[in-house]
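Ligand-bound model needed. zinc ion.
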Amino acid sequence: MLNVGKLEEGFVLDHIKAGSSLELYDLLQLDKLDCTVAIIKNARSEKMEKKDILKVECDINTLDLDVLALIDHNITVNVIKNGEIVEKKELALPKQIKNVIRCHNPRCITSIEQELPHIFFLADAEREVYRCKYCEEKYNWTARPL
Amino acid sequence: MRHLMSPLDFSTEELDLLFGLAEDIRKNPAKYAHACHGKILATCFYEPSTRTRLSFESAMIRLGGQIIGFADAASSSASKGESVSDTIRIISCYADICAMRHPKEGAPMVAAEKSLIPVINAGDGGHQHPTQTLTDLLTIHSLKGRLGGFTIGLCGDLKFGRTVHSLIKALVRYHDIKFVFISPEELRVPDYITDLLKSRNIPYEEVIRLERVMPQLDLLYMTRVQKERFFNEEDYVRLKDFYILNADKMALAKKDMLVLHPLPRVNEISVEVDEDPRAAYFRQAQYGVYVRMALILTLLELEPACE
Ligand SMILES: [Zn+2]
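Prediction:
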């Protein structure tokens, strides 16, 4: 495999669906971090033929991993410290997400008060149902994927 | 500090306490006549709902408290573009408790997050109207003597009726209740409600004609069927009489059945039914005041003043 250098501290996000790493880069807002990021596209994989990998060198508390689970919970998260994998994280759907998705219910208070945060809570983990905290309208992932 | 946003905010045990208090208020109004002396209720109504507002104001005045507020958005600072969060911060300085009605769903929750005083959701769009549900539950509790162990018929617009959905969700927490849904095909109760009943093994039946099920009902909750909900005039004309309660249909019912209605009614209950002792809808409006009195006392954590 292509060697892009060893991480001292940070994350290796493995088993990303091939072709979706750039999208992930945006959603994790990695452009806002002043750190080294390596994007590996179309790496060979036994499990999934082709995959993408993201390596991010950063303080392990800086990344919001909640959003990752929303995108794809098959992604493997390896936490690196002192150049070693110290933890493999299982991705679980976050109980609450803030300002990641927006409520589109025209009857919702968030539709007229612009400064309100868009907060959704996990109403049904099995069916991945998120509801707006204010109006309880279900988020429609098919109409508006991340 | 607690707020009331949804009827499910209170556990059934907490509701028992609330209804016990409401019952005591009904029996001994004098004991509570000064319980809120020196307290102010703000009724912040961003859309008019005269009955709900007057019910809250009557409740506070009967507790010896006072009221301030506005009755529609035009006479509030919202017309100048003030946010709900800012308004409630100001209201928190003027009053001790607030009842808020708003056409946008979730507005009272936005208020509750920033408020220094308890906020009661007095209706937010098509979302929640918890004090209506508490009124319905108290009426059943007081007039039937129990919540549970009965067959309740819900008749009319079961598809769009927020009142009906929230009553069902509140009633599934009690035991031994059978639901009978009486509505035209177009206005059937939504799937999420029947799914909820199925998942809890709660018996229910869906029928089109009211008179067929009248004999088995212990309670009948009537709602209005609006003409504009129908796809065509023909269906409306054909079906509308099915959902009008009159003396003939009442003759089929049990001697102790009770008829409830959130009011206002238009023509879905004939005036001739009003004199029937089983018609409980005007008493229901009275219970609406008692339950709001009990709620105000509970949220303000007040005891009745000693005489
Ligand atoms: Zn919303």
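Residues 96-143 of chain A form a domain with the SH3 type barrels. fold (CATH 2.30.30.20).
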